[in-house]
């Protein structure tokens, strides 16, 4: 890919509608949390929250809740990055569906590696590149307006790739075919995702409400493993994070930045129709 124009990045009306959603997204649930320390995330949190944030002086309570939610979201990204093992400054990593870049900056800080992030939202790419300039890392951390199904990067160019809650926008077979092409032999793929439970049956009502809210298409758990196997990606770790993300949603439901999607997440997780899963796989 030599030029990135709207026409060759956004290939379908569906992709255009997803791009439009993210180009217009300015929700305090993401911006106020990002303002805490300048890492802007588009994913959820992991771990228990400090119950004391719900007590104490009322005038500072909401700020303390927001800071605590942000801490849990950063902990989630840390767990994702923990699964890359040793990454050196010479290695190149790809953040597929990078949002405003939070996880990419954490990876660069930790590994000193070269980072590429791709998003089909021009606003997110611009925001993330501004952040890279402000942080003085724009020579090493670059965000591109590109489609993760067809990135235009060279074959075998990346040591690791992740999706932090972005796989529900794409066909997994197409996605993993592209990642299989991009990863060097022995390269690592990691994703954290919400997927529905094959065992309880099809998409539950709560899962459908999540799909509708984000204009996404949550996949069944089984699809991940079929699509990985079809593309020479061999799982090494599969971790069910469901019980670890429920506290985040409970806290978020009590915060001033709740968006209304908290109940469907809590219902879906508690009824067992939906899992919060981490998958790590190696390219063979
Ligand atoms: C958005 O994060 C995440 C998604 C659109 C993926 C859906 C995730 C699943 C696990 C199904 P965000 O931080 O932008 O969302 P919000 O604005 O609700 O915080
Ligand atoms: Mg968020």
Describe, in plain words, how this protein is organized in 3D.
With 284 residues, the chain is an alpha/beta fold. The protein has one domain: Rossmann fold, CATH 3.40.50. 43% of the residues lie in helices and 19% in strands. It has 11 helices and 7 strands. It has helices spanning 6-9, 13-23, 28-35, 58-82, 102-111, 122-134, 172-182, 205-214, 221-229, 242-253, 262-271; strands at 92-96, 114-119, 141-145, 158-164, 183-196, 233-240, 274-283. Strands 3-2-1-4-5-7-6 form a 7-stranded mixed beta sheet, with helices on both faces. Strand 1, helix 5 (102-111) and strand 2 (114-119) form a beta-alpha-beta unit. It is globular. The chain starts with 5 loop residues before the first helix and ends with a strand. 44% of the residues are buried. The mean pLDDT is 97. The structure holds geranyl diphosphate (GPP) and magnesium ion (MG).
Could you list some keywords that capture this structure?
seven-stranded mixed β-sheet; 11 helices; binds magnesium ion; Rossmann fold; alpha/beta; 284 residues; binds geranyl diphosphate
